[in-house]
Design goal:
It is a single chain. By secondary structure, the protein is α+β, with helices and mostly antiparallel strands. Among the domains are: about 120 residues, Distorted Sandwich (Glucose Permease (Domain IIA)); about 70 residues, Membrane-bound Lytic Murein Transglycosylase D, Chain A (Roll), CATH 3.10.350.10. It contains 6 helices and 21 strands. The strands form 7 sheets. Strands 4, 7, 9, 10, 11, 13, 15 and 16 form an 8-stranded antiparallel β-sheet that branches. The longest helix is centred in the C-terminal third of the chain and has 16 residues. It is globular, with a radius of gyration of 22 Å. The protein starts with a strand and ends with a strand. The structure holds zinc ion. The site of zinc ion has 5 residues, from loops.
Length: about 325
């Protein structure tokens, strides 16, 4: 078997547009994405070694060392083994929607990283966003890769603790946090179900569990939109990611600040400012005294439509702050 060992100097971790299938790496410490906690030690040049049999098909096709094909190279155009999230979705996502093919013929399909009960879901916690889904496990339990892919990062990261990030050919990245032991290295190719580490309680964690994230160009997505955890299988083989969904559902910080503004607006109502009662960006947060009929009327929709969009019944009791799609 042919082995290629390519040594590159990695410096750039910002996402940028390229047209050719080649990579260049520059240092740009001003663009570190939203993960301010995972900081490098300031090395401008880091050696990264790819020791992989699958990057090129044959010796003859081996290009010069400037042309390395990492998973989804056309989308990311950079490969960072130090920073968890150096990519900026809003800068990189230039279309209205994209179809993410989750499994394809010949791929290993999908394997649950660990089968356990959910202890926390995607959404805003009291003070911060929770970008993943927490799966209960015992320290030492085996955690496996959800899909075929290549390990981009395997190291300790603040918050995540011992963490593995795997890049997949469809552009998705899967993140596995709080591991007690890392069993893979950057550049390593994996198939779905490959053991990547042991579950644990490292980083910002208060009990052994797996923190599982799905990200696309750095944007965290709700894994429950992909996985039916009760059945342990994918909900769909083909996931469509829309820019609107990111704005209305996945961009937790923006949604939270929008919500805070709404609440502030409502509170200041008693001092004269008017609360419109209208949804913003297609989302409405339930206030005291609201009911479905009034919300529907104000937003020029119907109770039936609200129920359908939000998977609730006309008789459902609304909770204060509950998010409704309009
Ligand atoms: Zn978590």
């Amino acid at each position: 078997m042919k082995r290629l060992v390519i040594i590159l100097s990695i410096t750039c971790i910002a996402c940028f547009n390229v047209s050719a299938k080649s990579f260049s790496y520059h240092d740009d410490k001003t663009k570190r994405g939203d993960d301010k906690k995972a900081k490098t030690k300031g090395d401008d040049t880091t050696k990264f070694i790819v020791n992989n049999e699958n990057i090129f098909d044959s010796e003859e096709e081996s290009p010069d060392t400037n042309q390395i094909l990492f998973p989804s190279h056309d989308l990311y155009a950079s490969w960072d083994t130090l920073m968890a999230h150096p990519y900026n979705f809003s800068e990189c996502f230039k279309v209205d929607s994209v179809v993410i093919q989750l499994t394809e013929n010949g791929d290993g399909g999908f394997v649950m990283p660990f089968s356990g009960g959910l202890t926390s879901v995607f959404g805003w916690r009291k003070y911060r966003p929770h970008y993943g889904t927490d799966i209960d496990l015992e320290t030492g339990d085996q955690v496996v890769s959800a899909f075929d892919g290549m390990v981009r990062l395997a190291k300790y990261c603040q918050g995540y603790g011992n963490c593995v990030i795997v890049r997949h050919n469809n552009g998705l990245e899967t993140v596995y946090g709080h591991l007690s032991k890392l069993l893979v290295e950057p550049g390593q190719t994996l198939t779905a179900g490959t053991l990547i580490g042991l579950g644990g309680n490292t980083g910002r964690s208060s009990g052994s569990h797996l923190h599982l994230e799905f990200r696309y160009l750095g944007q965290a997505l709700d894994t429950e939109d992909f996985i039916d955890y009760a059945k342990g299988e994918l909900k769909t083989n083909c996931f469509t990611l829309r820019k609107l969904d990111v704005e209305n559902k996945y961009d937790l910080r923006a949604l939270h600040s929008r919500h805070k503004k709404d609440v502030g607006y409502a509170r200041s109502g008693s001092k004269g400012a008017k609360y419109s009662g209208l949804a913003k960006g297609g989302v409405y947060f339930v206030r005291r005294g609201d009911n479905l009929g009034a919300i529907a009327r104000r937003n020029h929709t119907t109770v039936k439509s609200l129920c359908k969009k939000n998977h609730i019944k006309e008789t459902s009791i609304l909770q204060l702050g509950q998010k409704l799609k309009i």
